[in-house]
Amino acid sequence: MQSRFRADRGLTARMGITLFLLGLLYVAFVAVLIVLLKSWVLVVVIAAALLGAQYWFSDRIALYAMHGRVVEREEYPQLHGVIDRLCATADMPKPVVAVSDMEMPNAFATGRNADHAAICVTTGLLRRLDPAELEGVLAHELSHVAHRDVAVITVASFLGVLAGLVVRFTLYSQVFGGRGRKDQNTVVVLMTVMAVSAAVYALSFLLIRALSRYRELAADRAGAMLTGRPSALASALTKLTGDIAKIPTRDLRTAQAFNAFYFTPAFGAAPGGRQLFSSLLSTHPSLEDRLDQLGRISGELGEAPAPGKAG
Asked: Which regions form coiled coils (predicted)?
């Protein structure tokens, strides 16, 4: 079903191009495996099975990993009420609503489509945001579901795991296999497979990061247009980014593996000399870029700036 979230042709094109390029990359990768290894089929079968499981059960896996629990309206009436209004405005099915008991203020969407999706917020986020800011964040997350980029980023991210599986499988088969000897040719094959796997992983990583940064800007745009209050989303971004930077690093380490799915990444800004390098590896655009875009949208909508609004 088509929602009322504004279609983003740029996002759709980038998702298609990313999946196409990743597909070509992995076809070439499998071709190399066919040449170098006789047991490549097992690796591909295992990876395909894991990919299928992650695609079909991505919502449950993500909620479990981030300690999210499904909550009913009686327990969180305000949260359910905001999501109900946004889903009615966007003309889309209501996702499962979940809460994670974490101090880190954040939110994420997961699921393979609008009929099998979940929106999870942390208790730290609920304590910090006012109703308008919460609405902006939830509209951002719902747009990920409506645009189906959650499913695309899930599939794209998992493809990189195949390269890691190949490295491990090759090591185990060569070190613990029954070949009986480790001649020079075996060593060359092993090193070649590992080098190719590393190159495939690196290229996949960069492609996925580029898509991830764009999809966050697209979700900011769609969420701001749906609510008509980009200043509220900008206020939430500024507040949450600053608060996350104050949380001890040790408390963010487990969350960083899920940065691609979060509303805002679980780390602070890089020092000046590392900003360019970090931007290439980041799952999100910079706070400045996101606020600049929301400022332009606010001007287009003729929205009066909120008192004391940053940026």
From this structure: none
116 annotated ligand-binding residue: no
Active-site residue, from 72, 141, 300, 303? 141
Alpha carbons 228 and 173: distance in angstroms, whole number: 58
141: annotated active-site residue: yes
**Domain-located, residue 309:** no
Is 144 assigned a ligand-binding role in the annotation? yes
Instruction: Please give the tally of structural domains in the chain.
Output: 1
Residue 137: give the domain boundaries: 9-301
Q: Return the structure tokens found at 206.
A: 């960069």
Per-residue pLDDT 10s for the chain (311 aa) are 556 777 788 999 999 998 888 888 877 877 777 776 666 666 667 667 766 776 777 778 778 878 889 999 999 999 999 999 999 999 999 999 999 998 889 999 988 888 889 999 999 999 999 999 999 999 999 999 999 898 888 777 766 666 666 666 666 665 545 454 456 677 777 778 778 777 887 888 888 889 999 999 999 999 999 999 999 999 999 999 888 877 766 556 566 667 778 898 876 544 444 455 567 778 899 999 999 999 999 999 887 655 444 44
The pTM of this model reads 0.81
* Residue 140 labelled as part of a binding site: yes
Is 22 part of any domain? yes
